[in-house]
């Protein structure tokens, strides 16, 4: 009797867990089909607003004491939080100055960089602040927006939406910077946004002064890591378990975009990047060279032994030299 009772308990235990596993197995992909915002979060991870407890309206709290916070309206109902960091040489003069003073400095002849960050977090992430400081130390202006849905920006991110945001910030800067260079720096997801924006601008008969692609990815040649990969191996799973990227048009076709781009491009990539393999980026670089030429398209790899991975290139002591050479070539 005792053995029979134990067998019954074990059977119930396995039955409960089997039913739970079945529910999860069926529910997750169904939720993906019926709740597109879940896919949206998987692609952009915009709701993960790290670092926590940061007041994005106060960049000085993050040692950016020559930076102003502002909000730009990229389209009706969409407000973008943006930081403008002036060249480091102006930090004393910048103390206590208002938004109008910061905007007027854009006409001082210094190059203007627009930094398009990757997914997850906000403009307050340590590596994003690190890039802003490197550029500011070189005497450049830096605009760092949070796309719609990121940080304190309103709305929800879509591929078309974040591309619109990037183009709006570019046009806003171009209108206020006179003849100064305006350079786009995209990192990770931001490289897809940058190439999308470059093609949109090209269709208008215009071109960026220069584009930097750091930690570039290519959705055509790379898997986008989500938790549904194992569903796609099952026969007939195409309908119930769609590819979240393809289904939601989050394509960012960088490879195709590079074939159409006409502006100078600089690839920056760490050999130990664990999210974007350098082999894929090498192929993208060669594609861009074929579309233009080796004078207008450059690539600077960083030795994997330095341990920069996906976000750490701003720490390299030789990075400023590479940036200056690129700017001087424009």
TrEMBL record:
<feature type="domain" description="AB hydrolase-1">
    <location>
        <begin position="111"/>
        <end position="216"/>
    </location>
</feature>
<dbReference type="InterPro" id="IPR029058">
    <property type="entry name" value="AB_hydrolase_fold"/>
</dbReference>
<dbReference type="GO" id="GO:0005789">
    <property type="term" value="C:endoplasmic reticulum membrane"/>
</dbReference>
<protein>
    <submittedName>
        <fullName>Monoacylglycerol lipase ABHD12</fullName>
    </submittedName>
</protein>
<dbReference type="GO" id="GO:0004622">
    <property type="term" value="F:phosphatidylcholine lysophospholipase activity"/>
</dbReference>
<dbReference type="InterPro" id="IPR000073">
    <property type="entry name" value="AB_hydrolase_1"/>
</dbReference>
<dbReference type="GO" id="GO:0052651">
    <property type="term" value="P:monoacylglycerol catabolic process"/>
</dbReference>
<dbReference type="Pfam" id="PF00561">
    <property type="entry name" value="Abhydrolase_1"/>
</dbReference>
<dbReference type="GO" id="GO:0047372">
    <property type="term" value="F:monoacylglycerol lipase activity"/>
</dbReference>
<dbReference type="GO" id="GO:0006660">
    <property type="term" value="P:phosphatidylserine catabolic process"/>
</dbReference>
